[in-house]
Design goal:
Blueprint: H1 2-9, H2 22-29, H3 37-53, H4 59-86, H5 93-120, H6 132-155, H7 162-177, H8 197-208, H9 217-229, E1 235-237, E2 246-249, E3 257-258, E4 269-273, H10 277-289, H11 305-319, E5 331-332, E6 336-341, H12 343-349, E7 351-352, H13 358-367, E8 384-392, E9 395-400, E10 413-418, E11 425-436, E12 439-448, E13 452-461, E14 479-485, E15 499-502, E16 511-515, E17 522-532, E18 537-543
Parallel strand pairs: 7-13
Antiparallel strand pairs: 1-4, 2-3, 2-4, 5-8, 6-8, 6-10, 8-9, 9-12, 10-11, 11-12, 13-14, 13-16, 14-15, 15-18, 16-17, 17-18
Helix pairs in contact: 2-4, 3-4, 3-5, 4-5, 4-6, 5-6, 6-7, 6-8, 8-9, 9-11, 10-11
């Protein structure tokens, strides 16, 4: 023990390397520039590689120096990823570069920790250096670095490559053979709660089963934090069970999957599931939904309750027994697709109804100092032209051109018109795939092929009289909201099937509205949210 401490402090025999001790490593890293986190992280990657390849380190000393390099680099990495999340652009080189620097940093550490375990600690041999606590700490750090690669690749819509999964399974296989899977460790001083190699495996596995390709970058980050918070609720075993619907094979570097009615039979197969994690998410969701959601969205690096509720619902859906899967086959298609984004643009290109009262609506807006863009005016924004890739009954795959799509992000509402079509559809961007470099493929779910735009006069909540909205002069003053109906015939079908898209700032649950439909004025009652995004909310409604 004394010899190990002496080596860490810099005494005794030392390797032929500038970072021959933890203290010297800290000194050399102290002057890295905070103003350029990308350059600092590149320099740390070089140090990681040289420390890993230099002979003469004891197992404990090399592990200690690598930990200093990781802890120092994490500060710069957090800055880079915060910059990326706050200004993610799918075709922007700087955005991609931020993610790539983080991936390179974590990949170098993951490889270095693994080499340290195998070559220095000899954890695969009959006798291993160090004690079990130290070994478990290095295993957990190596697995955490590997798992962060998964998260960052999803932040950049890149998907996870087989090397990441292969290295993660290699760590867990080592932990199993060394009897460390349930060994408690505190590898990071800044974390209050201990962890285990088993939890470090389940964190990225359950995160992957949360369908991150359908989340915006900031929601991927939030999902990762939620998963880390409840990691001790997840379960894993060597045999299949109804509560363990997902599987991996430690001998196969492939992503985890839902095995259905055909569980793998290989001895290296492992089966896992959310355990009590879904209930813990539900408890969080119930607490957040006990109060009305604010209309504002995330600002800076903090997450709003809207963000939290959205991600909680998403994870519960994809971890649950009714996990979604693609129902309709996609067929290849070639052609041009015209794209407009934002609710404002959509309402100006879809079919207009009830426009005979626009004069009164415009007068009311002017009285209140609000500007109204009439739905009858010509569109002043040119649509973007994308290439069609494939199509299904309720979706379309497209390629985002290199010099377009700066607004593109998971969850964005858009208007879509195929080249041969006469009318615009309304859709939501659900998937992005940037694995082919600068080529980005987007998947758009079509919400309605027959949308229509109409004005709603806000009357009051059910049971209230319009007189309660009267001004002091005795004349009635109303607020008007432009909405886009997402169905073919608003008067047909069950009430539960009716939905519309409106500005989130205009949404009031259970609000009674008068639909301006010319001579056929009807009352509408707004219901619960079905979906939402940065500038829209989709709500159910009923004709009263």
């Amino acid at each position: 023990m004394l010899k190990w401490l002496k080596g860490l402090a810099g005494g005794g025999e030392r390797p032929d390397h500038p970072m021959y001790s933890v203290r010297e490593a800290e000194k050399l890293l102290a002057d890295l520039p905070d103003s350029n986190p990308g350059k600092a992280l590149e320099e740390i990657v070089g140090w990681v590689e040289s420390v890993s390849q230099t002979p003469g380190y004891t197992a404990s000393l090399r592990a200690g120096v690598l930990q200093v390099l990781e802890d120092t680099g994490q500060r710069f990495e957090e800055k880079l990823l915060a910059e990326y999340i706050n200004a993610a652009r799918i075709h922007d080189h700087r955005s991609r570069d931020r993610c790539q620097k983080s991936i390179a940093f974590r990949a170098a550490l993951s490889e270095a920790y693994l080499a340290c375990l195998v070559e220095d600690f000899g954890i695969d041999g009959e006798t291993a250096a160090g004690n079990a606590d130290e070994q478990a700490s290095v295993v957990c750090r190596g697995m955490r670095c590997t798992a962060i690669q998964e998260k960052v690749r999803h932040l950049g819509y890149q998907g996870v490559d087989s090397q990441v999964w292969g290295r993660l399974y290699r760590y867990y296989d080592i932990a199993e053979k060394a009897g460390l899977v349930s060994r408690s460790a505190k590898p990071y001083r800044g974390e209050q709660n201990p962890t285990t190699p088993q939890w470090e495996l389940l964190r990225p596995l359950m995160l992957e089963m949360g369908a991150l390709e359908s989340l915006a970058p900031e929601h991927v980050e939030l999902a990762a934090r939620l998963v880390a918070r409840i990691a001790n609720a997840f379960e894993i075993a060597a045999a299949p069970a109804p509560a363990l619907p997902f599987s991996i094979d430690l001998a196969q570097p492939a992503s985890p999957f839902q095995y259905g009615d055909s569980p793998p039979k290989a001895p290296t197969a492992r089966f896992f599931g959310p355990g009590t994690g879904i209930q813990r998410l539900k408890d969080l969701l119930d607490r957040e939904e006990s109060n009305p959601l604010p209309g504002d969205r995330k600002e800076g690096q903090e997450f709003s309750r809207w963000d939290l509720v959205r991600v909680l619902r998403h994870l519960m859906l994809y971890w649950g027994s009714e996990r979604p899967f693609r129902l309709n086959k996609r067929t290849q298609a070639k052609g041009k697709v015209y794209i407009l984004h934002s609710l404002e643009a959509i309402r100006r290109v879809v079919i207009q109804v009830g426009t005979d009262q626009l004069g009164a609506i415009e007068a009311t807006f002017q009285e209140r100092g609000r500007k109204l863009a009439l739905a009858a005016e010509e569109l002043d924004v040119a649509p973007e032209v994308w290439n069609e890739k494939d199509v299904s009954e309720n979706g379309i795959g497209v390629e985002v051109p290199l010099k377009q799509g700066e607004w593109v992000k998971i969850g964005r509402l858009c208007a879509v018109k195929r080249a041969e079509a006469d009318y615009w559809w309304v859709g939501v961007l659900r998937r992005l795939d940037a694995r082919a470099g600068m080529t980005v493929v987007a998947g758009i779910e079509i919400l309605s092929k027959n949308p229509s735009s109409m004005w709603l006069k806000l009357v009051g909540k059910e049971g209230q009289l319009a007189s309660t909205w009267a001004s002091s002069t005795g004349s009635h003053k109303y607020d008007y909201v432009n909405a886009v109906m997402l169905e073919a015939d608003a008067a047909a079908g069950p009430a539960a099937s009716h939905t519309l898209a409106i500005d989130p700032k205009e949404y009031v649950p259970e609000m009674m509205c008068e639909a301006l439909l010319g001579d056929k004025t009807r009352l509408v009652k707004l219901g619960a949210q079905r979906d939402s995004g940065d500038d829209f909310v989709i709500v159910a409604f009923a004709w009263a």
